[in-house]
Amino acid sequence: MLSYPILIAFLLPCLSNAQDVSQLTGQKFSDELERMDINGIGAPNLQNYYDSLIYDKQTDTGTDIVIKMTDNLAQMFQTMTNQLRNVKDAIEQEYDDFSTTVQNIFPQCCKIKGTYSPKFRTEVSETRACISQSPPPNHFPNKKIEDVMKSNYQNNPNLLWQYFGGSDGTFLVFPAHRFSDNCFSYDPRLRQYYVATAANKPKDVVVAVDVSGVTATRSNYNSKTLLIVAREAVQYVIDTLNPNDRIGLVAFNDKAKRPLSCHGTQLAKATTSNKKILQDFTKTWTSEGNSNYSAGIEAAFSYFVSSEAEPQRNTRESVILFLAAGDNSGEDPLDVIKDENEARNNSVTILTYSFGIGISSSWRELLTNMSKQVKNDNPYGHKIKEGTYTHMVNHSLLHSKMSSYYKDLSITNLGDEPVFSVPYVDERSAKTGLISSLCLPVDKLGGLVGVTCTDILLDELLSDITNFKQGELSYAFMIDGQGRVMVHYLQPTPNAITINPDPIDIYTLETSPEAKPMIESMKRGENGTKTFKHLRTISRGILEYEGIEAREVEAEYSWRKVPGTNFSLCVVLGKNDQQSRLNQNQELLVKKGVFYYHRLDLNTKPTQKCREYQRYSTIEHSMVMLSPHAFVKPYEYLYRNETHAEVVAYSRYLNDETEFQANENLKLKENVKTSIQATYKAEEFWKQNQDQSQFVVWRYLGTRDGHVRVYPAVEISKDYDHFMRPWWRRTVAQKGKFVVVSPYLDNWGAGLIVTQCKAVYEGRSYGSHSKADIVDVVQCIDYPYPYFSRMFLNTYPECNSDEYRCMVIDISGFLVIYPSFSVVADEPDIELKHLGMMERNIMQELLNEKIIEKESCLDIETKKQFFSYRVLLSDLDEPVNKLLTKGYKISPVPKSNIYIIIKRKDRLSPGTCCPFSNISPLENTCSGTDCCLCHKIVPYDSCQEKTTSGQPYHICSARLPDSNVRVDRELDKIKSLSPCFDGQCDARKNEQNCYKVAGCSWCVQDNVGIEYTPDNQCCNIFETCPFGKVEDQKQTSCLKMKMETSKNSSSEVLIVATSGVAGGVVIILIIVLITVKYRNRTQRQNENPDYLTAVSENVVYSRTNEIQYLSGEAEKPSQMNQYSSMSTSSDGSGNCPVDNTQKVQT
């Protein structure tokens, strides 16, 4: 027979779960988010303040802006060109005095030991040059060349590397650095910059290689086979080419073989992708058969289209490099050359080579005649371009001879116009991003003696464009004379690129039909203005996970050629998208004490320091971090080590102690000062609402003017760019809403957090705003995930059920709250978990019902079509309740980007629509019917640089750089500091109260993963047991808990030793009491949800530095549920809630 105590225990939780989940809506949780927006974030307070401020409307037109930007660029180019000519002149004057033997004037680069430079992103010696040589050099530069380079660098710190590559293989570079351990491996003559400068035309190069059986014999070069030597030589030739050049490749024996796809039928631009395809083709070669010269030369000519327009042939140099290893077994190749080249007006030069012992003297004569094209006529004035023939006795020199083919063409460049290279990644330090080289040929007595260059970071050169922030829909881009994109908002920023990219044609990114006349005008170097509509791509966050929004925008395009170059710049201003600026002279702005720099170690103002999690901090100020966008010269700020004097200069200017900026190179933009003064209002609010610091981790904001403010103050990485962060992008894309960011591990050491943000608009005196307004500020708070999930469960106690499971998703389908997120782990794997991964059947049902839709865009960088998802319910729509028929219900949370989903556990199985749930969309290829985050490879003709599917695509926004780097722990700084906000974790006796403040964690397992018994579990600071498991070498009070709790064992459950009618009366009375109690509790929750203010309203406080803390005596009973229990189970099941509204006994 069931005893009364057991029966009572059984009925208690079940009676408290009486509310029907079918009545659940998102309104109550919206109220909670709004309350935290008001009391925690402070966005309404800051918006009201901004509405009271005075703004100055910008009057610059697109034409005004483009003129300023192109003039600035022209000045930078001219400065670089003048300095480059200084080096060229010095070399030409001193060349005769260059030593023919090593004089030990310069150290060898392979032996340099420098110090790390943030600008060069490698170790350098900035006081000297170094030398490298490729044997046998005979002209070593003297000290005067170094002096000129050093003077250039002192006068223009924007310069990166300066160097001279001699025609004999000598290489001098400033500043000195160790770019190779081999002192003789670097040959400048085989590099793209050298070849592009030494030759005054772009080149069409076809290489035909003999792969007959004779190439299986050993060479005299390290016993390699002739085939391997030939393959290496071809790869060297390919490496000399840049994207202005085109290439084709033929392997021949009895028959000719060419690569598959377009690379076997047409010349391909020498881009990174095409080079790799052709180099991979060389790896398929095998030695077999005989040498059929005719087959090889005919296949080589097929790449040159005979119908190609004459002007095109006149502006390009066409050449065939023909390498033979055996005697000819086919027909006379001279007849083929006559027919094919005369059809092309003798425009192709032939250079022939042979190696090995398999070629007799008679066939060497044939190769000579092939290069001279002895059977060809000179019809109608089209003169034959005679080539050369070389037999390579030393096989180790084959690669250098063939890759120096440009010397045997009549295209030597001896001019004085600089050659600007196609952007590339510096092999000396890939961390610098894209660079470009500005080069000049160096001649002596009409002969080329070398090439001198200077490099510049493309991010520095084009900083005016990449940092252009006129509004949310406006942007700028630049192309060269061929229409290739130099910079565009749909491409990654130059400093984020780490592998050589393929050039992109501007028509790929600017797809509006009305853009075509404008683009052709830009390519011709003309100026103009035109207004038309186009689709503007808006980033929604992380591209491969969240996709884009395509919005039609009317915009004014203003374009102008950059004087002295072949570049053209365009500024695109969206209609009504010009950002106003805060007036600098208004009384409402606080001007003193508004700026406290984030470098706490360099600040001189005395402050009381504390530790916030594992960070060195203070609560006396919020800190301000100046992003690169705040500076007139962003690169000057990024690539230098900050000093105390510079921080003092920032502080004096921004705290209005002086009107002048001390350092011209670190000059801030005009609007930054007033913007910092305006956001000081947020610091005042945060400090006035200190009690909210009990519930949240960080409070912060980012502004369109380029600064970040964080409370408590903490140092941030110098290259932190809030415009690249998902919290900024998501909030701007969904402005007007409470934007909740799904859980992630805090980079600043606070564990698992959830972010809530709100956009603050540019001020309006009438105080009314719409989504068309420009966002000035994004303001956010970070919650500990356990606190946020409990806030949700406190709002919806009906979710604590064995029959239902509740979860929260954002508008892209990512889980914000989910039962298994509370599982104990060393480091939880919960970031970017999608509904399609975790609840596949629900995902499939929502897709079928068109509640969620699938969208896609084309990522030009990877040639992948990424698929993402959107919830189509608006925040004003009624819930969709299909609990009875389909087993789920989805309810929008008004004014937010999130949705509540309720699932019946007995109706929906996990499902199978996403079989590979834990694979990144970058790696997960879509199948036919899946609901995963995935991609499809887009058919792409890399020769023509266009897709071939015939399907129109929205172009994706640029993928975000991987900036999710954990900040190093500051243990040495904080080991003796008190916590900024002491939550008194050790005094909290149950899990519910442990997670009611930020910074505490309920310890469930010891450091080796053994689970404590329930009465031995305890509360500690997060650093001791993050995610419920004790860290190694950390001590907890968990083992003491049993002794403390055993003292109260005499007051456990009251045993009712009655029976019959008396026992029944007791049970009925208890049921009535519980029912009344639950109704009262529900009524109080509906009238005044108190979870966020429960601590300040219902408990006893202790005060430390005027901040309120929860006392150990004021504990509430634990409310156990599927989210609050940090257990090792991942099934999401939990217990019904226990009433937590009883009075505290003190």
Describe the protein.
This protein has 1146 residues and is α+β, with helices and mostly antiparallel strands. Strands 4, 5, 6, 15, 16, 17 and 18 form a 7-stranded antiparallel β-sheet that branches. The longest helix has 33 residues, at 62-94.
Key attributes of the depicted protein:
1146 residues, alpha+beta, 7-stranded antiparallel sheet, 30 helices, 22% strand, disordered C terminus
Cα distance spanning the termini: 40 Å
The quaternary organization reads as: single chain
Main pleated sheet? 7 strands, antiparallel
Shape: globular
What does the average pLDDT come to?
84
Give a concise summary.
The chain contains 30 helices and 46 strands. It has 1146 residues and is an alpha+beta fold.
Per-chain topology:
Layout: H1 4-15, H2 27-41, H3 43-52, E1 55-56, H4 62-94, E2 115-117, E3 122-125, E4 130-133, H5 143-155, E5 162-166, E6 170-174, E7 176-177, H6 192-198, E8 203-210, H7 226-239, E9 246-252, E10 256-257, E11 268-269, H8 272-282, H9 293-301, H10 310-314, E12 317-324, H11 333-342, E13 348-355, H12 361-372, E14 389-392, H13 398-402, E15 419-420, E16 424-425, E17 434-444, E18 447-457, H14 458-461, H15 463-466, E19 475-479, E20 485-487, H16 506-509, H17 515-523, E21 528-539, H18 543-546, E22 548-561, E23 568-574, E24 581-582, E25 609-612, E26 615-618, E27 623-626, H19 634-638, H20 644-654, H21 670-688, E28 699-703, E29 707-711, H22 726-733, E30 739-745, E31 752-761, E32 775-784, H23 785-795, E33 804-810, E34 815-817, H24 835-838, H25 840-848, E35 852-859, E36 864-871, E37 880-882, E38 888-892, E39 898-904, E40 934-937, E41 940-941, E42 946-947, H26 971-974, H27 991-994, E43 1000-1003, E44 1018-1021, H28 1041-1046, H29 1060-1087, H30 1094-1098, E45 1101-1104, E46 1107-1110
Helix pairs in contact: 1-29, 3-21, 4-5, 7-8, 9-11
Transmembrane segments: 1053-1076
Protein name: VWFA domain-containing protein
Biased composition (Low complexity): 1124-1133
